[in-house]
Amino acid sequence: MAPPPAAASASHGASAPPGTLYSLFHRPLQAPPAGAEVMRLKGAGSQIFRCETQSAGLRWSFRLPEAELRDAQGNAVVHHGANLSFEHVDGSLLLSDVVDHVPSPNSDALPWLLLKTHSFHDGALAGITYVERINTVGGMPPASCTPEQLNELLRVPFSAEFVFFR
Question: How far apart are CA 69 and CA 78, in angstroms?
Fold first, then answer.
């Protein structure tokens, strides 16, 4: 099956133009519906995991992200946190759900995501309908944890690019 005509090849550290698909291993990341790119921010922080008992044994289970997203001038303008939320310094807020994901080109990096959002309060994030998390670095926990680590939290550093669409 050939990739959709809008697909663009992406390599580690490279950004594709807004509104394109990112061709990765098995299939491209689903593109957000037609809309304007509003802003592109660089995020850095931690992915937080908890050591839990699962059917396959003790594993690190994702709990929440905790990151600051910065504009091109380096100003922290959005906090990314629990429930895949984004809170702008002006008080506007997004809550989001994962619509699509594909593996990162780097096996030790977080998957790339397409998030459908719900906005609250007036401000820079009002009316944002989708967010892409791309160009990820880091953020993946070890494959398993030990009995001594049961219920412990693990913070794994990561960075990514976040693209907001209205």
Answer: 5
159: number of Cβ within 10 Å: 16
What does the block give as tokens for 99? 């619509």
pLDDT in tens, 102-153: 999 888 999 999 999 999 999 999 999 999 999 999 999 999 999 999 999 9
| Total number of domains constituting the chain | 1
Distance CA 58, CA 149 (A): 9
Judge whether 130 lies within some domain. yes
Query: What is the domain extent for residue 110?
Result: 36-165
